Amino acid sequence: MISNKTLTSFFHELCDVSARETLPRFRVGIQVDNKQDGGFDPVTQADREAEKTIRTCIEQHFPDHGIIGEEFPDVRVNAEYKWIIDPVDGTRAFVAGLPVWGTLVGLCRNNSPIAGMMFQPFTDERYICAGTGTQLHHKGQVIELTTNSDKVLSNTILMSTAPELFSTSEKRVFDKVSDRCRLTRFGTDCYAYCMLASGHIGMVIESGLQFYDIAALIPIVEQAGGVISDWNGDPITNGGRVLASANPQLHHEALTLITG
Hints:
Elements: H1 4-22, E1 32-34, E2 42-44, H2 45-61, E3 66-69, E4 81-89, H3 91-95, E5 102-109, E6 112-120, E7 125-129, E8 135-138, E9 141-144, E10 157-160, H4 168-178, E11 183-186, H5 191-197, E12 203-209, H6 211-214, H7 217-222, E13 227-229, E14 240-245, H8 248-259
Parallel strand pairs: 3-4, 10-11, 10-12
Antiparallel strand pairs: 1-2, 4-5, 5-6, 6-7, 7-8, 8-9, 12-14, 13-14
Helix pairs in contact: 1-2, 4-8
């Protein structure tokens, strides 16, 4: 088992090396390629180069571990430990100049997420779960994060990435929960889950996620005291529909609305 100290140090190294590839390309009008026929799924040189440098670091430190990333082929997928990489989660926000994207790196053991980081280099916010507890490393401070303890859905702030990611039937389900909440905000990608872990909001509901979109965020939310599952209340194994809540009571109430 990798120690918390080793993992924390390694996550900081990944933050540093990935920032060298992403930050100089942010808000400078770089070329954007589209990966989706008939739609818009952007990818930039920042995505590709950041993933390359993260993969290089993993190979140097943990050569027996598997690697699954968004931009390049998987390696050693049957390894006990696997690193899950989304080099720029929120590429749409990235190309729009909005600082709510982040670099995600998660660590799975036997396919279960056990540690993760979300790094926003423009604000230099490093959300790190190295196995026990979730911390925000920012401006020389280390802050232990705890989710909101408010159990009342009508007091809750709900976040999601974009309404167009939901199908028509999914949007009706989302609206049932949203109508019960105090406030709903869109456009936050991975940043929403860190606001949840920090206690600023109470819930995130998403659909259409890949595993690399969520693997790093699962331990960040859970180790801060939150609950995260699919829309049936089951563990997230392959992405898809995600519900994350600040506490079990909110989660149960939202699941009752979603499945009812």
